[in-house]
Amino acid sequence: MTVRVYVRLFARTxxxxxxxxxxxxxYGCETWTLYRHQIRKLDQFHMRCLRSIARIxxxxxxxxxxxxxxxxxxxxxxxxxxxxxxxxxxxVRMPDIRIPQQVFYGExxxxxRLPGGPVKRYKTNLKACGITARDINTAPLQRNSWxxxxxxxxxxx
Length: 157
What we know:
Layout lengths: L2 H23 L10 H19 L9 H8 L4 H17 L6 H7 L16 H5 L6 H6 L4 H14 L1
Helix pairs in contact: 1-2, 2-3, 4-8
């Protein structure tokens, strides 16, 4: 076994462990409403870890897309979006008496938003991949077609 094959095999094992750790750390991300600067920080951490595992230095000037392709892993934003779309399908298929569905479709009757600009909502994140509000309400009812649809939306994202 040559050293090159051993390093490649060792990197694959490291990536598998990293993928398991990231999945654990992102537990509950289905319900997060993230702003752009928070996603950027998560992505910076993600890329720094992948570059370290693949032993790619910043001075090598390898683009992030190539690092993701070399490590055979998706970007952190795609992971978050896929988990959120999966959760939306689950919530839409719930009975009307369930609290998560009531919160998902609910509106505040009283109160004011904080000053300084519009508050980001959960549904706003979902529209980023090209799925409209009508699609969010009706498409998840067919489970298999919804799964294939959000996976292709995330892949094109």
